[in-house]
Design goal:
With 102 residues, the protein is of the alpha+beta class. Helix content is 24%, strand content 31%. It has a single domain (10-97), classed as Aminopeptidase (3-Layer(aba) Sandwich), CATH 3.40.630. It has a five-stranded mixed beta sheet with strand order 1-2-3-4-5. The protein starts with 13 loop residues before the first strand and ends in a 13-residue tail after the last helix. Residues 9-99 form the N-acetyltransferase domain. It comes from Neiella marina. This is N-acetyltransferase domain-containing protein.
Length: 102
């Protein structure tokens, strides 16, 4: 099975955390980046999937990994990335994760 035909799961997502930023990545396939945490808030600012893997649910897997991480760490999310913003606003169950602006 080639990489283009491989089915990916959340277990394929690697989490890389630094003091001021992080990323969730499936190497060579896609990534979601964020700034923070800062006072328990992260800014999910970018999601990208390689052209060869678009339309396979990769962005959704990265989003699900972000939600899991945010819940584990008790972080709230500023959805600067339009994809993340749309996914969060469509889910009544995830509204508690959206950071409230002052």
């Amino acid at each position: 099975m080639s990489d283009q035909q491989k089915l990916f799961s959340v277990s394929d997502v690697t989490t890389e955390l630094a003091e001021t930023h992080g990323r969730l990545v499936i190497e060579g396939v896609g990534e979601l980046t964020f700034i923070g945490p800062n006072n328990g808030v992260i800014d999910a600012n970018h999601t990208v999937v390689s052209p060869n893997h678009q339309g396979q649910g990769i962005a959704g897997l990265l989003f699900n990994a972000l939600i899991s991480l945010a819940e584990q760490q008790q972080w709230q999310i500023i959805p600067s990335c339009s994809y993340i913003a749309k996914k969060l606003e469509r889910s009544d169950q995830l509204q508690h994760l959206i950071a409230k602006h002052n």
